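Supplementary Methods, section 5.1.

A reviewer requested that the exact input to the structure prediction be made available. We therefore reproduce it here, unchanged from the version used in the analyses.
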Amino acid sequence: MSSFDLGHLKLRSGEAHRDTQSVELSPLEFGGERYLPIPGEVDAELVITRASTGTVFELALHTRLHGPCYRCLQDAVLDLPIRGREYQATNPGESEELRNPYLHDVRLDLSGWARDAIVLALPEKILCRPDCAGLCPVCGADLNASPHEHEEEQESTVWAPLAELRDRL
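The structure derived from this sequence is encoded token-by-token as follows.
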């Protein structure tokens, strides 16, 4: 887990601290599938700005996820530029909105923040390519490699009485 120690920073209102931090990225579980960040450790730009009412944290990184395509299960590669911004009020009181969930005492959890920012940047469906045809629902073949159609199957004789009833109504 990568984190940043804020204990040594002594920023006054309006001042900012810029730094490049190495952030460990863990594999993600998304839609029941596992996606691996390659590489597992990336350089991220961290900017900490002191405001009159609190502190603003900004994190920017670029990652690449490898995992199965939602439609055909082949390897999908997703390039993600990530930008995140969080705020911590000087006196947040009971308000959860004014608290930074990645700030624990004087340590900023960069790995947890990066993981959540990546999940928020993911598309609804991760595809190997935008026009992925998926798998054939009848035989399971990859429709990208061999597009085909099956002839309509004959209705089972078990359902014949119901088909007759449907036709009469």
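The chain has a mean pLDDT of 90. These observations are discussed further in the main text.
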